[in-house]
Each structure stands twice: as C-alpha cells, then as structure tokens.
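RECORD TYPE: protein structure
NAME: Succinate--hydroxymethylglutarate CoA-transferase
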Amino acid sequence: MSHFVPQSVKLGLPPSLRTRSRISLPRTNRASQRNGITASRLHSTLPLSGTLVVSLEQAIAGPFCTRQLADLGARVIKIERPGAGDFNRYHDTRVKGLCSHFVWTNRSKESLALDLKESDDLSALKKILSKADVLVQNLAPGATDRMGLSYQALKEKHPGLIVCDISGYGSTGPYKNKKAYDLLIQAESGFLSVTGSPGRPAKSGISIADIAAGTTAYNNILAAIIQRGKTGKGCRLDVSMLESMAEWMSFPMYYAYDGAPAPALAGAEHASIYPYGPFQASDGIVMLGMQNEREWGIFCMQVLEKAELFEDERFVSTSKRSENRKELKMIIEEVFSSFSADEVLARLQTAGIANARVSNMPGLWNHEQLKARDRWAEVNTPNGKIPALKPAGAAEGMEIRMDPIPSVGEHSEAIFKEFGIDR
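PREDICTED:
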C-alpha cells in the first residue's frame, strides 16, 4: 500500500517550516524573543535555520551537541527543571558568578522550565514535539522511556522526528542501565591506560568523553537531517560515550593489536615517535616534533649543529630514536640549555621544525593567532557580557551566531504562548 507523503516532507523541509504559517508569534518584548522566533529570523541564512531542536539535556554531552546545532542556526529549546535548572549551572561560579561548563555549552538557546513528573508539563512538551525536527536527550538510562518519549513511542505520530539518545553505554548490552560520567568513561575506554607517566596514569584535563559523545551526536544528527531530506523519515540515533571514545582510541588499540604491548605511558611525549614532546631550555619548556628522516637530519645539522647524530646508529630511525629516547633527550637538552625558550623556538622555526609554546590559560586567552584571526566575540549572560570563541571552521562569509546564554525558564512564557499552551 502506498502512503501519501506531503511535498514539503519529500523536499526534506522541517516540520517547523511546514507549519510556520499556523504559529502565532507571542507578543513579548524583544529581549524575551531574542533567542526564539525573532532570533531565528535574524539568522535565516544559516544552514539549520528553521530547524527546531528540543533537548532534555544536562551536563556536557547533550548541551555541547545542541550548542553546535544552534551555532548553525537551529532553534534549540532546552528543557530545564523549574527553579534549579540544569545541574551543570552550579559546578562552579568562575564566570561572573556563572558556571564555566554551562556558559561554554549553552549559548544561543531558549530555556523552558518544565517539571516532567507533572502531567500538564509533560503534555506541554509533547505538544511542542509535534512541531520539532529533532529531540536530543542525555538523561539517566530509561528516563525518557518511562515518560513515553522514546523513539518507539513517538515515531507513529511524528514520523519525521529525529530522536538522538546519548548515554554512557548505549541502549542494549549488559551495561545499558549503568550510570556513566566523563571520568568513568575515560577509565572504561582505556584512555587512562595510555595517558600520564609510568606509575601515574592521568585523566584528560578536559571532559573528553563528553566532548566525544557530543561531537558524535552532532555529526549523526546532521547526517540524519540530510537522510530525512531524501526519505522524508526521521530515525533514532543511539549514541554511546564508550563507543565514541573507543573510536578515538583506535590508534592505541591497533598499536596493541593481536596481543602486542600497548603504547608506553610517556607523559607529554609521544609514545612511539621521538623527538616529539617537551624539552627544557634555559628558562622554560618548548615543544617540538618531527615526523620523518628529512626533518631529523635538518634538526641535527641546523638546530643542534651536531651533524654526526644523523649517522649515529642509536638514532637512525623513528623506532630507534624512541627506544633510545633517554640518551637523545640528554643530548638535546644539553644544547638547549645554552638558549632561552624564545631562542630555541626561533631556531626551530628558521629550520622548519614544528614547534610550539606551552601555553597556560592566560596565554590562550591572549593568544596572538586567535586575535589575528578575529576569533573572539561577546555573548550576553544573565550576569552581563562575556567573551566567547566564535565557532571554529565556519564557512567563509557565513553569518556567526552568538546569541545569549539563558537563565532558567527565561523563555517559558513566550514558548507557551507560541505553541498555544494555556498557563
């Protein structure tokens, strides 16, 4: 039996565009509209303009995913608990009294306060979902199933809806109901086993497992939107933090293939390529790296001014240099001890050897390359303006969206009016 598919669906138009003529704009002030319909019109040239994303999100993975969708013009409605909101608002108060994690991952969104344990609020959410293109959630395992918000429960009424579930371990398998946080996935994925120094494994300094999952979700949502443009159908995405990190761990996994030893713990050095890492100069540390024998020869002759090292049997290949790194490190640092870090960096740069400073956070805030490329903008927050990095890699000439970070429930009234929800 054939089914009628509206032309708007065949063309891949999102529900929020197909039904826009039936939506009445709320008569609210400009400030309250800024992240909503008004903002979506202001950003109408962005790729995801007209796409409505509803997100039951907390912590990092879900919010990082949806912030990137917002960067591309999607309208993101963030569902938060009344009063408290996303618990990630309160981990610290480093940014004008706001949490550093939260301000990073929540610009350009609308905040809708709903208590989903209350039937009226749950019904309100389901009404909003009737106009949505994407539902993202990273709540505790099973939470959306219990509320009737799973893909299986929604797909009959909303065949074009894309549902992205983000969890620690995925929706099947023996770990499906296991709680997961970033550091626990760093451990479970083997990341801790290849990071740090001998006898002192170390975690990443950033929430790398959350970022991996958020990026995986973002990429697959974009693919699902393209797929829906071809089929007219939504789909379910089952994104696992463990699987996202396992993909990023592919190099050390293959390095240890078929029972071979895993990469050695090497601190800030590369585990198998040398010299590639930090070296002490007279007044600080410099980073350098080389990937082939041509660069090694140039390094010996022009930087170290020790041409004989190029023929030294201990250092004739990448693997040999890695095996004998202690001896080579002593030789390199003996030369570098006669120069300041700036002088070493200048010698490396002149010779065409890759190099870097070891920046701290003030150094990154003030990095001359970021300033030269105009990478900074300002965003509004409930506590005033703060600097923020523009989205990386944006297409040349593409509009940059840097809309405010919302307070809890800031847009609730406007959204209720827009969707005809009585309150």
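COMMENT: The CA atoms of residues 7 and 222 lie 21 Å apart.
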